[in-house]
Each structure stands twice: as structure tokens, then as C-alpha cells.
Write a structure and sequence with these properties.
Layout: H1 2-26, E1 32-36, H2 43-59, E2 63-67, H3 74-81, E3 89-94, H4 95-104, E4 115-130, H5 139-148, E5 154-157, H6 163-175, E6 180-183, H7 187-196, E7 201-205, H8 206-214, E8 219-223, E9 249-257, H9 262-277, H10 279-287, E10 291-292, H11 297-318
Parallel strand pairs: 1-2, 1-3, 5-6, 5-7
Antiparallel strand pairs: 3-9, 4-7, 4-8, 4-9, 4-10
Helix pairs in contact: 1-9, 2-9, 4-11, 6-11
Length: about 325
């Protein structure tokens, strides 16, 4: 009886392996849905569409971007986590999705560890912007005003727990100031509020923030990475301006529902790697202020593990808890 049971299990495992291999042989045979957890038109959404268009050429099937914004990427992440693990629905995941949210929320509608990694896409710093209606001419002006008027200044973000939010919290900590967080669903909502003067400050992505600064619609005072951005060499880092060890960036990756067959993940990862080697795509990312990465799952795993203790400590220090 035991021997028969082992034979049955072995046959079952072989059948599952054969099925996975068959899926990989025909994959993809129809369009792939790519969920962007931010509103259409924002920097992350633009990045997602640039990558999806090029990856589709390698995979031979359309990649259709669908926006499911809100709750610090949780809405989009929860949607993808419930989809079939067949490679036909994938997620543009950020550091909020895979790292920050696990420390922010008492309960999440998804498991941050409940995805199969496809690969790391890129890393991008943010820029500190202010409303043109404020008389600030430097970061020091902002800090001086905030110290004289605690709790009066507001800073907009992409949403609670996003890289924009963490950059604001880190700025508060490093500068020793009290400014009020005002979350939005993305840059497409936050920027108009900043331009109109409804909020005072905003840590935005380079791709959406710098064009507004160059047009004179907002003021820009610094960048959040440890080093200056190659495409914006005259923009000083906040660390250079007297706020030591200031290094808070946004990063981007692709993941799939947990249990997606390895051969399918391999095809997606191969398409991503080829895309990130494409000179036209690389230039587009660099112009957006995003440093292209390897496209591998190993780099994504390393990024997640490296960032977890740093983010956990910052959130505890800032005493951020979301329902």
C-alpha cells in the first residue's frame, strides 16, 4: 500500500512538472495584464508603460497596463495576489509594496512575501519641491520656517507609506522639524495641489517634478539620493546641504502571483533583462531620473532584504501606524 502511494505521488509530481513545461512551451499565448498601482500619467505609470511596450516585442504578445491605484499600492497588489499564477497578470511593485507596507499596516489585504519575483527594474531618487506661493529660496529657508512655525507646513506624498512619504519623514527627522503629512493617490493629484498652494512641499519623482520646476510652476531645492543624479548634476543632494546620511529613493520591480511556474517566470525575466539592455529604453529611464538595474530576481531579493531593517527603524522612529 505504501509503495503504491509513493508511486502515485511520484506520478502526480511528474504530471505537475509536465504541465508546467507545457505551459512554458506555449506561454504567452494571449495578452498579459500589467497592473500599475498608481494613477495613469504619474512617473511609475509612465515607467510601467515604457517597459511593457518593449517587453511585449520580446514576448510576442501585447502587455496591457491597467491602473489600480490607492492605499500605498495595496489595492493593486491585493488584486494581483488573487489572480491565477499563470503569468498573465503581473504587478509593477515598488518598495512600498514589498517592504514598507508590512511595517505600516496592522493588516494588509495581501502578503508582501506572497509573490514570485520577476526582476529588479530601477532605482530613482526624489526631489524636494515647494509651492511657488511660498517665499522659500533654499532648503534652509524651509527648515527655518518650519522650526518657527511647527506643524504649519504641509507636505504632499504619493500616499501613506510610499517612498515620497518616507522621504518626508526622514526629512523631518534629519532637520528636526514638524510638518504635516497630506497623502494623495499619486503625483497627478499631488502636483496640482502643490502648484495651487493647497500644500507647501512635495517629494516627487524626477520625471514629474523637474518639468514643473523648469516651467517655473514649482520650486526645487534638492535630491534625496546619496549622490547627485547624472542627468541633474547641478541639483545638490540633501546630504550635501547639511542633512547627513540622507538617502531615500524609490525603486521598481516586476512580480507575479505566488506559484507562477518557474519556466514562465524565466520567460518574463528574460524579456525584462532584454528590455533593460535596450539603449532606447535605458535612455528613457535615465531621462526620467531612474537608474536601470539588472532585471534579475536575485537583485530584487537582495534589495528587499537590505531595505527591511532600515525602513522598519524609520517607521518606528516616526511612529507611523496605519489602519
Amino acid at each position: 500500500m505504501i509503495r503504491k502511494r509513493y508511486k502515485f505521488l511520484a506520478a502526480l509530481l511528474l504530471g505537475v512538472a509536465a504541465l508546467g513545461s507545457a505551459q512554458a512551451d506555449t506561454y504567452p499565448s494571449r495578452p498579459i495584464k500589467v497592473v500599475s498601482p498608481f494613477p495613469a500619467g504619474g512617473a511609475t505609470d509612465v515607467l510601467t508603460r515604457v517597459l511593457a511596450e518593449r517587453m511585449a516585442k520580446t514576448l510576442g504578445q501585447p502587455m496591457i497596463v491597467e491602473n489600480k491605484a490607492g492605499a500605498g499600492t495595496s489595492i493593486g497588489a491585493a488584486f494581483v495576489s488573487r489572480e491565477q499564477p499563470d503569468g498573465y497578470t503581473i504587478l509593477m511593485a515598488t518598495n512600498s509594496t514589498l517592504v514598507t507596507n508590512r511595517y505600516l499596516y496592522k493588516e494588509l489585504p495581501y502578503d508582501p512575501d506572497g509573490f514570485s519575483p520577476i526582476g529588479m527594474v530601477g532605482i530613482g531618487p526624489l526631489v524636494l519641491l515647494s509651492s511657488p506661493k511660498r517665499p522659500f529660496n533654499s532648503t534652509q529657508d524651509i527648515v527655518a520656517y518650519a522650526k518657527q512655525n511647527p506643524g504649519k507646513l504641509t507636505f504632499a506624498t504619493f500616499g501613506a507609506g510610499t517612498s515620497s512619504h518616507l522621504a518626508g519623514e526622514l526629512f523631518k527627522e534629519r532637520a528636526g522639524i514638524d510638518i504635516l503629512h497630506v497623502p494623495f493617490k499619486g503625483a497627478t493629484q499631488a502636483l496640482p495641489a502643490l502648484i495651487s498652494g493647497d500644500v507647501d512641499l512635495f517629494f516627487d519623482m524626477v520625471a514629474t517634478g523637474m518639468p514643473q520646476a523648469e516651467a517655473g510652476k514649482v520650486k526645487v531645492f534638492g535630491i534625496t539620493s546619496a549622490t547627485r543624479l547624472a542627468t541633474e548634476p547641478n541639483l545638490a543632494t540633501l546630504a550635501e546641504q547639511g542633512y547627513p546620511a540622507f538617502d531615500m529613493t524609490a525603486w521598481f520591480s516586476f512580480v507575479a502571483p505566488k506559484g507562477t511556474p518557474a519556466p514562465v517566470l524565466d520567460k518574463l525575466q528574460m524579456a525584462l533583462t532584454e528590455t533593460l539592455k535596450d539603449e532606447a529604453v535605458r535612455k528613457r529611464l535615465l531621462d526620467m531620473g531612474i537608474d536601470p538595474r539588472s532585471g534579475t530576481a536575485a537583485e530584487l531579493d537582495k534589495q528587499v532584504k537590505t531595505e527591511q531593517p532600515i525602513v522598519s527603524q524609520l517607521i518606528k522612529h516616526a511612529n507611523i501606524v496605519l489602519q
